[in-house]
C-alpha cells in the first residue's frame, strides 16, 4: 500500500467521524443550516472512498494495455468528487427552500454549535495534512480532497457565525438563508474541481511559469547542443511528461549526444520530480531558431 493510499484511508476514517459529529449537531438542533453542513460530509466520505480506489489504480505499474501507466486514474476521482459536490449543493438548496416556506426555531443552539465546532476543527486539521502532502507528492486526488475539506471548513465557520445570530435575533429565516449560501459556495467548489480535473484528462498545458522553468532547465543543462524546440509538457497525476527535439552539431558522436540527453533528464527530474522524458536528437539543418537556445 502506497503512502498516498494510506493517507486516503485516513481521509475515509476522518470523514466518517466528522459525518457522525455533524449529524449529531443537526439532530440536537433541527437546524437546516447544520443539516446542509452535515450533508456535505456524506460527500466527503464518498469522495474519500473514491480516492482510495483511484490512488490504488494510479499506483499500478504500466502494462500492455496502459504503456504510459495508470496515473490519470486520480483525475477520475477528482471529477467524481466534483459531481458529488454539485449534487450535494442541489440537495441543500432544496432543504433551504423548504425552510423558507416553513421556518422553525432551532433547539439547543449552544450545544449544536459546540458539536459542530469539534467537527470543523477535525476537518481543518486534516485538510491541511491533505493539501501539504498532496502537493508534495503531486497527487490530484489528495489535493482535490484537501480543497474540498477546506471549503467545508470555510462554510462551517460561516454557518456557525450566522447560526449564533438566530437565537439572538429571533430571525428564523436566517437558518435556511445560511443553508442557501452554503449551497452556492459548494456549487462553485464543485465546478472548480470538475474543471481542473477535466483539464488534466485533456492534457492541458501547464501554466506559463512552469513551462518557463522547464525551458530554463533545458537551456542551462544542454551545454554542447545548439537548441531545443517543439517542447511539450503535460501532467498526468503525479507524473510530468516532457517531450522536445534537441539539435546538436553534425559532427557530434552519438555517445556525446546521449550524454547531453542524460544531463538534461537528470536536471529536469531533480527539479520537477517523477517524470517521463522523451528527447529526439536532430542535426543542425533541423534547427528552427525559435525554440530554446542552449546557453554556452
TrEMBL record:
<dbReference type="GO" id="GO:0015086">
    <property type="term" value="F:cadmium ion transmembrane transporter activity"/>
</dbReference>
<protein>
    <submittedName>
        <fullName>Cation diffusion facilitator family transporter</fullName>
    </submittedName>
</protein>
<dbReference type="GO" id="GO:0015093">
    <property type="term" value="F:ferrous iron transmembrane transporter activity"/>
</dbReference>
<feature type="transmembrane region" description="Helical">
    <location>
        <begin position="153"/>
        <end position="171"/>
    </location>
</feature>
<dbReference type="InterPro" id="IPR002524">
    <property type="entry name" value="Cation_efflux"/>
</dbReference>
<feature type="transmembrane region" description="Helical">
    <location>
        <begin position="7"/>
        <end position="29"/>
    </location>
</feature>
<keyword id="KW-0472">Membrane</keyword>
<dbReference type="InterPro" id="IPR027470">
    <property type="entry name" value="Cation_efflux_CTD"/>
</dbReference>
<dbReference type="Pfam" id="PF01545">
    <property type="entry name" value="Cation_efflux"/>
</dbReference>
<keyword id="KW-1133">Transmembrane helix</keyword>
<dbReference type="GO" id="GO:0006882">
    <property type="term" value="P:intracellular zinc ion homeostasis"/>
</dbReference>
<keyword id="KW-0813">Transport</keyword>
<dbReference type="GO" id="GO:0005886">
    <property type="term" value="C:plasma membrane"/>
</dbReference>
<feature type="domain" description="Cation efflux protein transmembrane">
    <location>
        <begin position="11"/>
        <end position="202"/>
    </location>
</feature>
<feature type="domain" description="Cation efflux protein cytoplasmic">
    <location>
        <begin position="211"/>
        <end position="283"/>
    </location>
</feature>
<feature type="transmembrane region" description="Helical">
    <location>
        <begin position="177"/>
        <end position="194"/>
    </location>
</feature>
<feature type="transmembrane region" description="Helical">
    <location>
        <begin position="73"/>
        <end position="93"/>
    </location>
</feature>
<dbReference type="InterPro" id="IPR058533">
    <property type="entry name" value="Cation_efflux_TM"/>
</dbReference>
<dbReference type="InterPro" id="IPR036837">
    <property type="entry name" value="Cation_efflux_CTD_sf"/>
</dbReference>
<dbReference type="Pfam" id="PF16916">
    <property type="entry name" value="ZT_dimer"/>
</dbReference>
<keyword id="KW-0812">Transmembrane</keyword>
<dbReference type="GO" id="GO:0015341">
    <property type="term" value="F:zinc efflux antiporter activity"/>
</dbReference>
<feature type="transmembrane region" description="Helical">
    <location>
        <begin position="113"/>
        <end position="133"/>
    </location>
</feature>
<feature type="transmembrane region" description="Helical">
    <location>
        <begin position="41"/>
        <end position="61"/>
    </location>
</feature>
<dbReference type="InterPro" id="IPR050291">
    <property type="entry name" value="CDF_Transporter"/>
</dbReference>
<comment type="similarity">
    <text>Belongs to the cation diffusion facilitator (CDF) transporter (TC 2.A.4) family.</text>
</comment>
<dbReference type="InterPro" id="IPR027469">
    <property type="entry name" value="Cation_efflux_TMD_sf"/>
</dbReference>
Amino acid at each position: 500500500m502506497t503512502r498516498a493510499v494510506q493517507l486516503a484511508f485516513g481521509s475515509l476514517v476522518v470523514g466518517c467521524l466528522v459525518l457522525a459529529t455533524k449529524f449529531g449537531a443537526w439532530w440536537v438542533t433541527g437546524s437546516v443550516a447544520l443539516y446542509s453542513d452535515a450533508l456535505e460530509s456524506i460527500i466527503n466520505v464518498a469522495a474519500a472512498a473514491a480516492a482510495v480506489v483511484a490512488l490504488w489504480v494510479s499506483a499500478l505499474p504500466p502494462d500492455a494495455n496502459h504503456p504510459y501507466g495508470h496515473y490519470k486514474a486520480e483525475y477520475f476521482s477528482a471529477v467524481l468528487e466534483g459531481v458529488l459536490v454539485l449534487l450535494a449543493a442541489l440537495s441543500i438548496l432544496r432543504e433551504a427552500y423548504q425552510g423558507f416556506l416553513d421556518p422553525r426555531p432551532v433547539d439547543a443552539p449552544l450545544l449544536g454549535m459546540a458539536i459542530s465546532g469539534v467537527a470543523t476543527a477535525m476537518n481543518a486539521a486534516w485538510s491541511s495534512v491533505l493539501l501539504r502532502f498532496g502537493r508534495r507528492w503531486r497527487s490530484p486526488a489528495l489535493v482535490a480532497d484537501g480543497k474540498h475539506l477546506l471549503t467545508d471548513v470555510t462554510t462551517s465557520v460561516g454557518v456557525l457565525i450566522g447560526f449564533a445570530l438566530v437565537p439572538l435575533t429571533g430571525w428564523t429565516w436566517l437558518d435556511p438563508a445560511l443553508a442557501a449560501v452554503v449551497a452556492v459556495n459548494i456549487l462553485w467548489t464543485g465546478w472548480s474541481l470538475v474543471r481542473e480535473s477535466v483539464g488534466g484528462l485533456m492534457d492541458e498545458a501547464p501554466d506559463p511559469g512552469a513551462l518557463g522553468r522547464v525551458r530554463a532547465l533545458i537551456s542551462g543543462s544542454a551545454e554542447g547542443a545548439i537548441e531545443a524546440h517543439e517542447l511539450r509538457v503535460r501532467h498526468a497525476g503525479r507524473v510530468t511528461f516532457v517531450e522536445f527535439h534537441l539539435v546538436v552539431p553534425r559532427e557530434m558522436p552519438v555517445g556525446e549526444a546521449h550524454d547531453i540527453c542524460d544531463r538534461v533528464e537528470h536536471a529536469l527530474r531533480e527539479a520537477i520530480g517523477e517524470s517521463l522524458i522523451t528527447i529526439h536528437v536532430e542535426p543542425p539543418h533541423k534547427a528552427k531558431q525559435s525554440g530554446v537556445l542552449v546557453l554556452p
